[in-house]
């Protein structure tokens, strides 16, 4: 309640920023660009689909994805930071947990997806090239770089394009789809290579805010995900954010709790506690979003994603008894996709085994064990006055992950408004790039 007027004001400013972007108006003078475009992108893309049908960007994205899926058994997605994390989050949250390993028909005959160009790792790049060669199957490349000049991605692009040329021959340009700005080095390279299809990262949409543009949507469509459902989830979150009163508004409540605990209790570490492996990459996407957006002017909370119960056996001790500087946000998915596995009895060849003394839990299923772990962990935190908050998702699919991604992007810009930090731009990242380039070119 104490913070409600400030949250209302921050929401109004964020909504006004989006309106300015939608109107194509010049944004007020800022230290860095005010890249508010992410906010209304879902609404805009869905409206365009309705209006223009096959000529819309969404329809074109799907057509490109289907063509690539028809032509290629594997697709290598090159990109780093905001040009990578979102696509990985969509793969891990919405696809089969062993997507690349299962037989093609179990993944709807869509291509395997590999991520590269997100590091400078000779062994990883070599390993992937060896794997692709060993399969002797057609593959393709999607390069995602808004600036078109990020060295990690640009170097990988050269390396993988050479390999692709050797494998695809004169079909090279058809197996290579760039997602980039409307000008720049990657744009020029793709034009020179005659790439028939290219996608834009729209103006006013910053890297880590671009998951719901072609940056995340093209890989998602290649995976066969329902990208309209994804955008509809994000749009639903936009509508909720704009209209729900502060006390019922998930975006504003999350910002309010996080901000107050930071200001009044020194909770400068934000643990995103995901209960299940499928949300790990979404958590890492959020780590980047928060760190790169608000970690400025010697401010900004430290985000840290954990996957439980796995990390209860590594970081749990510190979260339970370490420095009192943490807010733990549980991300809980209520319903799992798969049929519950029971612990069951261990009867092998007619002989019963109970040396592990688990017979008394035989009727329990893995979801029941997880529910008990969530309750037990949070009870222990509560008993020691360790603050927690919960984000509950009824299930994990394109709609709910679309809601989650949009919720966290909105929360980040609202918090930026609240603390007077421009969440867009990442001037601190430029320092290493400048030095690295100078060292390389000496
Ligand atoms: O969030 C951001 O803006 C960054 O993480 C960028 O996405 C990242 O640096 C990659 O930039 P680019 O897409 O220009 O290659």
UniProtKB/TrEMBL annotation:
EC number: 5.3.1.9
Entry keywords, A to Z: Gluconeogenesis, Glycolysis, Isomerase
GO BP terms in the entry: gluconeogenesis; glucose 6-phosphate metabolic process; glycolytic process
InterPro entries in UniProt: G6P_Isomerase, Phosphoglucose_isomerase_CS, SIS_dom_sf, SIS_PGI_1, SIS_PGI_2
PROSITE patterns: P_GLUCOSE_ISOMERASE_1, P_GLUCOSE_ISOMERASE_3
UniProt pathway: Carbohydrate degradation; glycolysis; D-glyceraldehyde 3-phosphate and glycerone phosphate from D-glucose: step 2/4
One Pfam match: PGI
Reaction it catalyzes: alpha-D-glucose 6-phosphate = beta-D-fructose 6-phosphate
GO cellular component: cytosol
Coiled coil: none
Highest taxon in the source lineage: Bacteria
GO MF annotation terms: carbohydrate derivative binding; glucose-6-phosphate isomerase activity; monosaccharide binding
UniProt record similarity statement: Belongs to the GPI family.
Annotated protein name in UniProt: Glucose-6-phosphate isomerase
Gene source species: Botrimarina mediterranea
Classification of source organism: Bacteria, Pseudomonadati, Planctomycetota, Planctomycetia, Pirellulales
């Amino acid at each position: 309640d104490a913070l409600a007027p400030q949250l209302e004001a921050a929401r109004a400013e964020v909504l006004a920023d989006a309106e300015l972007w939608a109107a194509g108006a010049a944004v007020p003078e800022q230290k860095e660009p005010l890249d508010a475009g992410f906010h209304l992108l879902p609404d805009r893309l869905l409206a365009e689909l309705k209006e223009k049908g096959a000529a819309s960007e969404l329809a074109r994205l799907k057509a490109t994805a289907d063509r690539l899926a028809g032509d290629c058994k594997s697709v290598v997605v090159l990109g780093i930071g905001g040009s990578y994390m979102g696509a990985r989050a969509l793969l891990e949250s919405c696809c089969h947990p062993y997507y690349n390993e299962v037989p093609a028909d179990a993944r709807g005959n869509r291509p395997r997806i590999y991520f590269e160009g997100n590091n400078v790792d000779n062994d990883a790049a070599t390993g992937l090239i060896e794997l692709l060669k060993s399969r002797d199957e057609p593959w393709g490349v999607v390069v995602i770089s808004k600036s078109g000049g990020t060295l990690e991605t640009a170097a990988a692009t050269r390396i993988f394009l050479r390999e692709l040329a050797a494998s695809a021959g004169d079909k090279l340009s058809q197996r290579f789809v760039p997602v980039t700005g409307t000008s720049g080095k990657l744009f020029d390279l793709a034009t020179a290579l005659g790439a028939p299809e290219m996608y834009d990262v729209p103006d006013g949409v910053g890297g880590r805010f671009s998951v719901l543009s072609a940056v995340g949507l093209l890989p998602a469509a290649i995976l066969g995900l329902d990208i309209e459902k994804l955008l509809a989830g994000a749009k639903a979150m936009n509508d909720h954010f704009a209209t729900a009163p502060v006390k019922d508004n998930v975006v504003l409540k999350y910002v309010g709790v996080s901000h107050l605990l930071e200001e009044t209790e020194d909770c400068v570490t934000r643990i995103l506690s995901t209960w299940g492996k499928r949300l790990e990459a979404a958590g890492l996407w959020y780590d980047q979003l928060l760190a790169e957006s608000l970690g400025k002017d010697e401010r900004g909370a430290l985000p840290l994603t954990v996957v439980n119960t796995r990390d209860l056996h590594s970081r749990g001790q510190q979260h339970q008894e370490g420095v009192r500087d943490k807010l733990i946000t549980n991300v809980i998915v209520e319903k799992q996709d798969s049929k519950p596995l029971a612990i069951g009895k261990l009867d092998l060849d007619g002989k019963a085994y109970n040396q592990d003394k688990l017979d008394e839990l035989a009727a329990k299923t893995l979801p029941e064990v997880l529910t008990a772990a969530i309750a037990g962990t949070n009870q222990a935190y509560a008993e020691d006055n360790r603050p927690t908050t919960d984000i509950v998702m009824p299930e994990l699919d394109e709609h709910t992950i679309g809601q989650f991604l949009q919720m966290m992007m909105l929360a980040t810009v609202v918090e930026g408004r609240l603390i007077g930090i421009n969440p867009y731009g990442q001037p601190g990242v430029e320092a290493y790039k400048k030095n690295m380039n100078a060292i390389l070119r000496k």
